[in-house]
Structures are given as C-alpha cells and as structure tokens.
Amino acid sequence: MSAIWLLVVAIAAFVVGYTFYGSYVIKKLGGADPTAKTPAHAMRDEVDYVPARGPVLMGHHFASIAGAGPIVGPIVAAVFGWIPVFLWIVLGGIFIGAVHDAGALYTSVRHRAKSIAEILGENIGISGKKLFAAFAWLTVILVLAVFAVVLARTFAGTPSVATAAILFIVLAIFFGYAVHRRGAPLLVSSVVGVALLALCVWLGTLFPISLPVNVWIVLLLAYALVAASLPVWLILQPRDYLESFLLYGFLAAALIGILATNPAIKLTAFTGFQVNLGYLFPMLFVTVACGAISGFHSLVSSGTTAKQVSRETHIRPIGYGGMLLECLLAVIALTTAAYLLMGDYTALLAEKGWGGVFSTGIGSFLTGIGVPLQLGEAFAGLVLAAFALTTLDTATRLCRFMLQELTEKEEGKPSAVVTFVTNRYVAGLICVVLGGWLALGGGWRVLWPLFGSANQLMATLALLAVAVWLTRMGRDNKFVLYPMVFMLAVTMTALVFMFFKALDAGIIAHTIIVVALFALAIVLVYLAITRLGAAGKRKPARG
C-alpha cells in the first residue's frame, strides 16, 4: 500500500470534518457573532491584549501548539503498528482534539480571555481554580525546562541553526514594528519578511555560533524571559507569523516529496494490544498526545490566543482548523516510520531517536524533488528547532500568566508580597529560574516520563470546564462531555499503570506525583458533578 493513500484519506477527512463538524461545534458552543467586541479590543493594553489579523494569529497559534509533540508521539507509538496510530490521529483529532482546542478558545473569549483555571473558578468554585492553576503551572515549568534543553542541544549540535534563529528574532522585531506601528502593508511585508527569513538561514551556514549546551540553556531562558515580558506585537506575533511560512512550506514540501517518491508502507499494520510501550489502551492515547489532543493546547488557546482574537468568526479556523493542521503534521510524521520495515524502524529509533527517524524520513522524501538527502535532513532539523523555540517562549508567557492568577488575591486590596509576585517581570523571572533549575540540574529527566499523563489530564479538565460552562448556559454539552469521559478513562487508567510501575521500581517521587495527579482528577470531577447537578436545578445563566 502506498503512503500517499494515508495522506489522501487524512486530508479528505480533515476537510470534511472542518467543514461540517467544525461548524456544528461552533454552533453548539453558542455561535460566532461577527459584531461582538472580543477581549482583544475591549481590554486592549498593547502588551498581552492586542487584536491580531487572522493570518497573523493563525501563525502564532499553530506555531505555539505544534511543538515536537505531533512528531515524537506518532513515531514512538508506531510500535503498535500504523493502523491504530492513524485512526487515533484522524478520528481523535476531528472529534476530540479539535473540539478541545476550539472549545477552550471559544469559552475563554466568552470569559474575557481568562485561562482555563479562571473558567473553572467561575463555574465550579475557587478551589477548582487554584487546584488546576497549580497543576498547570508546574506542568508548564517542566515544558519550559525540557524545551530549553532540546533547543540547547540542537543549537550546540547544529550551530548554523542557532545563528539563523538569532537573526530571525531580530527580523521579527523589525517586522512587528513596521506592521503594527508604522502601518506597513501586510502582504508586502510578508514577501519581504519571508525573503529575509531565507537570508537568515543562509547566513547561519556562513556564520555558525558554537557554544556549550549549558551556556545555550542560560541564554535561551534569558531570551524567553524577555520575550514573555514584551508586548506580543513586538516579538510573539511577528515571529510566529513569519515562522508559520517556514512551517507551511515544510508541510507543502513534505507532501510533494511523498507524492514524488511514492513510498510504500512497510511497517506492520498492527503488532498487538501489548508491546514494550505497554497496553494499547491507554498508552496509545497518552503517547500520541499533541497529534490528536493535548492539554497544553488549552493553555495556549486560553492564555495567549484568546487575548489576540480580533473577531469571533476567527475561532473556528484558528482553534478547530489549527488542530487539524497539526493532525496533518502528525500523519506526515507517522509516514516517516511507516515506510520502514519494523526491524529498520526499531533500529533507527534506537540509534538516532525519534528526531532521527523524522529527519531521515523527510530527507528521503525530499530526494524525490531533487533535494539532497543531507540538505533535506538539515531542513527538517531546522523546522524542529523552530517548533521548539516557539513553544519555549509561549510556555514562559503562559507560566507567567498562571503564576499571576495563582497568587492574586480574590477580594480586597492585595498585599505587598502579592503585588510584587504578580508583577509580570517578577513572575516571569520566577518561572525562568525554576525552569533553569530543572534544566541545568537534570531534574526534568525524572519528571518527563509523567508528562504524557499530566498533559492528557489537563486536556480532560479543560473539556470538563467547557462542559460545565455549557450546562450553566443551558446548552447541550454532549459533544464535549463524551470526549471528556473517554479522556478521563484514558488518564486514570494510565495513572494506575504508572503507579504500579513506579512502585515496583521504588521511585518514590514518581509514586507521589502519580497519586497527586489521580487525586486532583477525582477532586475536580467531584466539584464539577456537584455544580452540574446544581446547574440542572436552576434557570440557565446568561452569557
């Protein structure tokens, strides 16, 4: 069977899903009012709340959610065979992941661009808000640390990528100033910006910057602190917008390369319900996270994206469509493993890791359109670095938001300590210092294996927040409630397996964290059920 059929079926399913089910989801959420004044306009502060044009915001959102997750997940989970991975990406993306992202974005916009933690607080009580905010904050610090290490190793191993990334940041600042402050035409600026982006890549090969890994970690975290504190129009919006052309170009090149080489699927279709990774349920659904559903997306949707939505009609293409675009990336990542024989896949994964499988596969596909293998592999590596850089500074800004929400006083005048901690520079510094401690001290290695379950638990709780809000509004929530129940079953089962695994290995830290996550889910679900019951006995709230 040709891998082209995987792409044809996936693209057709995503187009149909976006057209019909995506429209259905927005209507069930309450509909998109093109005349409504979004928080980006109503609360505009030129720092975090800044309305963005649709294409610009789409670039930021897609670049922020599409980290390494949609690449590593399908490649690692391919040990179960390509069929279950493909089905989970396509069906999970359309009916669960895209619903999750669009629901989080829509609900946040209707809650003055508040985070999922704030939404939980308004709908199930302050205790729910504090529990989720603390959990999400700690999870994002882990993401910050891991991506700092991944990027530092990439820059140290490929100095040309480091130079290109630095030049790109400078370019983004000039682009943001020209478009946002000087009123430069977006089309002309985009053409010039993309040309200069290509120049940055070329200059990187001429003037590579070589530094040790730990030095890069410190420099990257310092950059993330600055980027998370500056207005979004100065770095975040323009860099992610320009970077999106690199990502879109990569998707187009990969698709054309697969069409040109027409690789055959050689990987085993289905290997069994139990492999060295664990049982198909729940490990498939925890491993293939970002490619089908990811809790981190709800933090991006309700953290940075909701504060920049200019019109409610942009929610479906950005929230629902952005997730399906990431699903397409996940399918492409799957093909880089599926065209290998099972033995070759296992050997390459052991030798070069998931990044090596991805880069080698993309490089092989691009040879079909005349791109040398080495250049194609380098291009794929640059795209991975671009994904990781975006995730790094977006995670830092989100971490700052959540710390501010976690420490702010609900009523009355805040104390001097709260005022100090909620300052955006201080909050950002606290996040970066903790992330740096995990990154430089190696603590992330102990915690990272738990990320998959924690991430999917976050997605479960985000769906829970949307479901409770819909109930309070007197609207049908089954299209959100059923995915939430499924993801809750996945998460709780995974945590049970991880508990016994950590217990057998004698890893006390893992055991304690797993128990804490399990208890968190139980408490929040109990609070939600209580509120759902109360909401059913009174008239719907307005909003």
List the keywords:
single chain, 2 strands
Quick gist of this model?
The chain has 22 helices and two strands.
Residue share in helix:
over 70%
Stretches where pLDDT is under 50 for at least 5 consecutive residues are none
Mean pLDDT: 86
Shape: globular
State the distance separating the first and last CA atoms.
Answer: 51 Å
Order of helices and strands: HHHHHHHHHHHEEHHHHHHHHHHH
Radius of gyration: 22 Å
Q: What is the β-strand count?
A: 2
Taking the sheet with the most strands, its summary is: 2 strands, antiparallel
Structural class: mainly alpha
- H/I helix tally: 22
Strand content: under 5%
Strand order of the largest sheet: 1-2
Describe the SSE topology.
Elements: H1 3-29, H2 39-42, H3 54-65, H4 69-77, H5 82-109, H6 116-124, H7 126-157, H8 159-181, H9 186-206, H10 213-229, H11 236-261, E1 274-275, E2 278-279, H12 280-287, H13 295-305, H14 315-338, H15 342-366, H16 373-407, H17 416-421, H18 424-441, H19 443-447, H20 451-472, H21 478-505, H22 508-535
Antiparallel strand pairs: 1-2
Helix pairs in contact: 1-5, 1-14, 3-11, 3-13, 3-14, 3-16, 4-14, 4-15, 5-13, 5-14, 5-20, 5-21, 6-7, 6-20, 7-8, 7-10, 7-16, 7-18, 7-20, 7-22, 8-9, 8-11, 9-11, 10-16, 10-18, 11-15, 11-16, 12-21, 13-16, 13-20, 14-15, 15-16, 16-18, 20-21, 20-22, 21-22
